[in-house]
Amino acid sequence: MKKSWLKVIAVFVIMTFVVTIAGCGGGESKEGEKKSPKRQFLTITTASTGGTYYPIGMGMATLWTEKLKEYNISVTGQSSAGSVENIDILRKGEAQLAIMQGLIGAMAWKGKGTFDGKQYEELRSISMLWPNVEHFVVVKDKVKTGNIKDIKGLHISLGPSGSGTERSTLTIMEGLGLTVKDVQPEYLGYSESADAMKNGTLDAASMPAGPPASAVTDLFASPIEVQVLNFTEEDLKGINNVFDTWFSYTIKPGVYPGQEEPIETIAQPNWLAVSAPTDEETVYLLTKTLFENLEEMYKVHKSATNIKLETALNGLPAPLHPGALKYYKEKGLTIPDRLVPPEAK
User: Fold this and answer.
1) Which DSSP letter does residue 39 get?
2) pLDDT at 308
3) What total number of domains does the chain contain?
4) Residue from 140, 135, 156 nearest 227 by CA
5) d(Cα 158, Cα 143) in Å, to the nearest integer?
6) Distance CA 166, CA 303 (A)
């Protein structure tokens, strides 16, 4: 009798356990009520904590995590050595998202330059974030036409040796048909370049940055007269024939002290990259959430105020991810053929 009673209790416990499991772990907990999506943990890799990439990346991670709770998507940010390392991090699957310089993305996508023979075919784009604007600053009495080709023959700083500034400056020169042999090169930082120009030991300097760039402001406010050189559409075309990542950019009058005329220069994007295997619906949600909450992003950092739907495709070096493509089509953007991902053709 005692054994029979124990069997009844055992059966009751087992049935209760089965019912509980069915209620909590099935495809539907109630009729018509769908199970929550599987939790996703994503990482966005940025650059050093002292730069702009890190705070903006952390800001996006926080925004996505807060706004996509119902989709069980969590995003964390991490620091890195910058654009070149970010390509390696994406390749290894240690992160799904990255902020990087347009030129580095173009090199990786094409397997040229820094990534010669190491093409990253799974690199995809989500959006241009903010522009890295080219400032070729020249002492005014060395200016001939006001065009970028005036740098030929000048004593010019190309940026610190091995830096992104040097890499982008040399690429621009290649697109203009110039080499290092056509100038008298120096390899100085921005502040050092400005000091050398004020001291009369340097004619010009390449200083790509988001305007107003402090070193450029310093030069415009100094006793010496300087000018930022202009680029033509023909110049831009030649440069993009090397790496297609630059776009036209106008520095409006008044950005720099005493600057009365607009400066017609070019810029490359600091952009948001993603690895192709990342789920399409997830990337769609990330893209949609970013652009539908821009006011919150604008509070993160001044550079974030450049994130706009109308400039989202500017200078992107790799095809869009299908998830981003879906969102932009919904918003009526015209998608250039080169940005249509292979998997969507």
Assistant:
1) P
2) 97
3) 2
4) 140
5) 17
6) 22
Q: Is residue 24 part of a domain?
A: no
Residue 82 lies in a domain: yes
Q: Is 265 inside a domain boundary?
A: no
Q: Is residue 243 part of a domain?
A: no
User: Which residues constitute the domain of residue 103?
Assistant: 40-130+270-344
The pair of three-digit structure tokens given for residue 31, joined into one six-digit string: 């009729």
Residue 180, both tokens? 């290092």
CB 316 within 8 A of CB 100: no
The neighbour count for residue 48, using CB atoms within 10 Å, is 11
Residue type at 169 in one-letter notation: T
pLDDT for 200-224, tens place per residue? 999 999 999 888 898 999 999 999 9
Q: In the structure encoding, which two tokens stand for residue 69, read together? A: 């709770």
Same-domain pairing of 100 and 147? no
Collapsing DSSP to helix, strand or coil, 268 comes out as strand
* CA-wise closest residue to 272 among 306, 238, 237: 306
3-state secondary structure of 12: helix
Per-residue model confidence as pLDDT tens digits over 51-97 = 789 999 999 999 999 999 999 999 999 999 889 999 999 999 999 99
pLDDT(231) > 80: yes
Residue 147: strand pairing partners: 230
d(CA 54, CA 71): 25
| CATH number for the domain that contains residue 294 | 3.40.190.10
Q: Which of 201, 230, 259 is the last residue of a domain?
A: 230
Asked if 127 and 268 count as a contact pair (C-beta separation under 8 A), the reply is no
Q: What is the pLDDT of residue 50?
A: 74
